[in-house]
Design a protein that fits this description.
Mean pLDDT: 80
Distance between the termini: 28 Å
Number of helices: 5
Number of strands: 6
Order of helices and strands: EEEHEHHEEHH
Low-confidence stretches: 1-19, 203-207
Largest sheet: 4 strands, mixed
Structural class: alpha/beta
Helix content: 25-40%
Strand content: 5-15%
Radius of gyration: 16 Å
Shape: globular
Length: 207
């Protein structure tokens, strides 16, 4: 979600949960067009003062703790290419960082999506379609945070269930297995959305 802006979901794309955004602070629903969460009062600008870090460039795989092997990184990148080929409007990102246990991963991910500079090979439109998996290697917990254009397509509850499913594949010495599994399951969930709305990726919904 990007500062509670209007996602502007086009009828050219499938829609799973159009119009529903999730507050990164309280996880409640926020209707598009509101400048703040009506449940907890959170506004996107609030997150900028929460993280005293210089925002890095949001590359496809950002391993800030150096836990991925060369083979693991290659496997993740190959799976990302498959996802991009199948659903080209979605931009997949993975961040691994050692964070304090009390830090909110949804808020941290929200900060990354909004604060990280747009790279030379990225556009603001692509950032809006970002699906970010952020992993705290200190606690072995993970969260999914989506840009405002991507967020309506898979519900927060489905993301939670997906992370629960892939958690059994997590190994501190080889986290790539769980990340690859996450990407595969994400494609499956998007495929189920296509079936539900009787569309092909990037095509108009059936009338």
């Amino acid at each position: 979600m990007n500062f509670f802006g209007n996602p502007g979901v086009s009828s050219d794309h499938l829609s799973h949960n159009a119009g529903v955004l999730i507050c990164p602070s309280c996880r409640g629903n926020v209707q598009p067009g509101h400048s703040h969460c009506q449940s907890c009062g959170f506004t996107g600008a609030d997150v900028m003062g929460l993280f005293p870090y210089a925002p890095p460039e949001l590359s496809p795989v950002l391993d800030l703790v150096g836990v991925l092997s060369a083979g693991g990184l290659a496997a993740i990148q190959a799976e990302m290419k498959r996802s991009l080929k199948r659903y080209p409007q979605f931009q997949w990102r993975v961040v691994l960082a050692a964070l304090p246990s009390e830090m909110s991963l949804p808020l941290f991910g929200f900060w990354l999506i909004n604060a990280c500079p747009i790279g030379a090979e990225e556009s603001p439109k692509q950032r809006a379609w970002t699906v970010l998996l952020v992993v705290n290697t200190s606690t072995e917990q993970a969260s999914v945070v989506s840009g405002y254009a991507a967020e309506p397509y898979i519900s927060d509850e489905i993301w939670k269930n997906t992370l629960l499913e892939v958690s059994r594949f997590w190994k501190a010495e080889n986290p790539a297995l769980a990340i690859v599994r996450f990407l595969k399951m994400s494609r499956k969930q998007l495929g189920l959305t296509c079936i539900r709305y009787r569309v092909k990726p990037g095509k108009r919904r059936a009338s």
